Amino acid sequence: MSENVKVAVRVRPFNKREKERQAQLCIQMSGQTTTITNPHSKEEKRFTFDFSYWSHDGFEEQSDGLLVPTGAQYADQQRVFEDLGRGVLANAFNGFNTSLFAYGQTGSGKSYSMVGYSVNKGIVPITCEELFKKMNENSENSSTRYQVKFSMLEIYNEKVRDLLQPPQQQQKGGLRVRENPKSKKFEVVGLKLVDVKSYNEIETQMELGTKHRTVAATKMNNTSSRAHTIVTVLFEQITKDESGVETTKRSEMNLVDLAGSERANSTGATGERLKEGSNINKSLSTLGKVIQALAKGKNSFVPYRESVLTMLLRNALGGNSKTIMIAALSPADINYDETLSTLRYADQAKQIKNKAVVNESPTEKLIRELKEQIEELKSQLGGKPMQPSSSQGAGAADADQALLARMQEFERQMAFQANVDQGGQPEAQQSTEPSMHEKEKQKKATTAHFTNLNEDPALSHIICHFVDQPEMVVGQDEDSAAASEEGGGEGGNYIHLTGFGIRKRHAVITMDGSDVFIEPGSAASNTRVNGTQLTEKVPLKHNDRLLFGTNSIFLFVNPANQDPSAGTPEKVDYEFAQEEIAKASGLLVEGGDAEEKERMSQILELFPMVAEVNAISDEMDKKMKFSVALVNDMMLPNASTSDRSQVMVKAVNTRNENEWLIDRAEFVDRRYRIQEMFGDWAYDQDKDASVYGPPRSDADPFFIEPSSVVVGFAGIFVVPLSLRMDSEDTYEALDYAAQRQGSVCVALEPCQEDGTPLTEEDFLDDPSALMQLNEPYHIKVMIRWAEVTHARFSTALRCVLYFGDLDVIQTPWMYGKTKADFNYEKIVTINKVTPALIEWMENGMAKVIIESKHKDDESTSSITRLTSMADMAMELQAAKDRIKQLEGGGDGDDGGDGGKKNSKKDRKASAKAAKELEKAKSELVEMKKKAEALEKELSTAKKAAKGEGDQEKELKKELKERDKTISKLESEVKKLSKKDSKKDSGKAGANNADVDAAIKERDETIARLQREMEELNKKVSAAPTGETVAVANVAADDLKESIKTVLNQHRNDADARALWTDVATKVGASTDGPLPPANKPSSVCSIM
Question: Where primarily located (predicted)?
Answer without folding.
Answer: mitochondrion
